[in-house]
Design brief:
The complex is a heterodimer of chains A (about 250) and B (about 170). Chain A has about 250 residues and is of the alpha+beta class. Helices cover about 30% and strands about 25% of the residues of chain A. Chain A is built from 6 helices and 10 strands. Chain A has a 4-stranded antiparallel β-sheet with strand order 1-2-3-4, covered by helices on one side. A 4-stranded antiparallel β-sheet of chain A has the order 7-8-9-10. In chain A, helix 1 packs antiparallel against helix 4. Chain B is α+β, with helices and mostly antiparallel strands and about 170 residues long. In chain B, strands 1, 2, 3 and 4 form a 4-stranded antiparallel β-sheet that branches. In chain B, strand 2 and strand 3 form a beta hairpin. Classes of the chains: A alpha+beta (about 250), B alpha+beta (about 170). Chains A and B meet through strand 1, strand 2, helix 2, helix 3 and helix 4 of A and helix 1, strand 4, strand 5, strand 6 and helix 2 of B.
């Protein structure tokens, strides 16, 4: 069972394998994304984050999830030596770089708690897979060619590792380097990170992208993560263990 | 605020997050809270202070809200392919086409996309001596799903919303 809806400004796809897949489960996932959108969208007048940015919501009134996201953002900022920062050049908070992966991961948890084992959730190109695909094999995930959206430049095979890609080729230069006068990052075009889950992959893909070409070295230094970086000259640099994901392995 | 204060707040936050993660672990699926090498101090204490961050944002004009049309379900849309207008984004034009089958969204394409990052004239030296580089090679293997950069610019959302409204 597969369904795509537009929420949080992007297509979100849920695919569930097996006869147990049902509409109730899918609705639960989309309801969750709707809740995340209504809380964290900087585009919505009525969201909690907008109220915070407008100074109309006192800190003691923040929701538990909002406090958690701010805490996780601060933790990520420390772990990335300041390259991840939800505070934008304009002074407003935009936690979308961490909320997206976190929300996908939480939505996947909802499905797992209900006993579903084989599925994926894809929100705007960040993916949380689980188990195996309809053929009983690892999920095959393509990495898009930044210059040709119909082409994949790599295929990785995963069971439940999260895959997240940061890039400038669609949004324009939206990722800022907080360390250097907030100039927009334009050395690299695309950074794909494979991590233990999509929350981890997404926050580090977002943070590392702001490091320019050093991004891949940062991912190389993280235990349990692999990455694939593509620069403006169309040259790619994988981390040293990345290739192990490009070979499918036999699953029972 | 002073650097000392920053470190204290940061330390409190880290401790609070660790407590939360330990608490969450005790009742649900384990969280892989990977800490990179050279990472933060994660000693646990009995400090129950809630995470506190003092926002220092100034009031001012925010980003105007974007009307995001959300697919409402099985019978929400008429079958067909609908193309939104070409929207102008700072970095180029973008146009979105959405395909509806069985009343549901089955494909979202971008027939007009920004031309992509320009080609630099300078030859930039590789800053990664330890990792090998490679050229991009198109892969023909079948995939279940594709990972790529987020398409959530305002222009993308506007074109997509317009395409979906044609399907309603």
């Amino acid at each position: 069972m597969k369904e795509t809806r537009v929420l949080m400004g992007m297509p979100i796809t849920v695919l569930m394998v097996g006869p147990a897949a049902n509409k109730v489960a899918i609705e639960k996932v989309f309801d969750y994304f709707k809740y995340v959108d209504e809380t964290f969208s900087t585009y919505k007048d009525t969201s909690e984050i907008t109220a915070i940015n407008n100074g109309t919501l006192a800190q003691e009134k923040w929701s538990a999830d909002m406090k958690l996201i701010f805490a996780l953002s601060e933790k990520t900022k420390l772990e990335t030596k300041g390259f991840f920062d939800i505070r934008t050049p304009g002074g407003k908070y935009d936690p979308s770089g961490i909320v997206k992966g976190w929300a996908i991961w939480k939505a996947a948890e909802l499905l797992r708690k209900d006993g579903f084992k084989d599925f994926y959730i894809d929100a705007g190109g960040d993916i949380q897979p689980n188990g195996v695909n309809a053929e009983g094999k690892q999920w095959a995930i393509g990495i898009k060619n930044p210059w040709n959206e119909k082409e994949n430049v790599k295929v990785v095979y995963v069971t439940d590792q999260g895959v997240a890609t940061s890039g400038t080729y669609i949004r324009g230069f939206h990722i800022y380097d907080p360390k250097h006068g907030n100039r927009a990052i334009d050395e690299i075009t695309s950074l794909t990170v494979i991590g233990p889950n999509v929350y981890e992959a997404d926050r580090f893909a977002t943070a590392a992208f702001a490091m320019g070409r050093e991004a891949i070295n940062f991912i190389e230094g993280l235990d349990g993560f692999e990455g694939y970086m593509i620069d403006k000259e169309k040259v790619a640099t994988p981390t040293s263990g990345f290739e192990t994901y490009t070979r499918p392995s036999i699953t029972s | 605020m002073s650097n000392a204060k920053k470190y204290i707040i940061a330390g409190v936050l880290v401790v609070a997050v660790v407590i939360f993660i330990v608490f969450a672990n005790s009742k649900s699926t384990p969280v892989a809270a990977n800490t990179p090498s050279g990472g933060t101090d994660t000693s646990t204490t009995t400090d129950n202070t809630a995470p506190s961050v003092t926002p220092t944002s100034t009031a001012g004009a925010g980003t105007p809200p974007v009307t995001t049309t959300e697919a409402t379900g099985a019978s929400g849309y008429k079958d067909g392919t609908y193309t939104g207008p070409v929207e102008n984004a700072v970095y180029g034009n973008i146009q979105v086409a959405v395909t509806i089958s069985g009343g549901k969204i089955t494909d979202v394409e971008v027939p007009v996309a920004p031309s992509g990052p320009g080609h630099t004239d300078q030859v930039t030296a590789s800053a990664i001596p330890a990792l090998k580089q490679e050229a991009l090679v198109a892969q023909s293997a079948n995939v279940n799903v594709v990972s790529g950069a987020t398409q959530d610019s305002q222009a993308f959302q506007q074109s997509l919303a317009a395409a979906l409204s044609q399907a309603s």
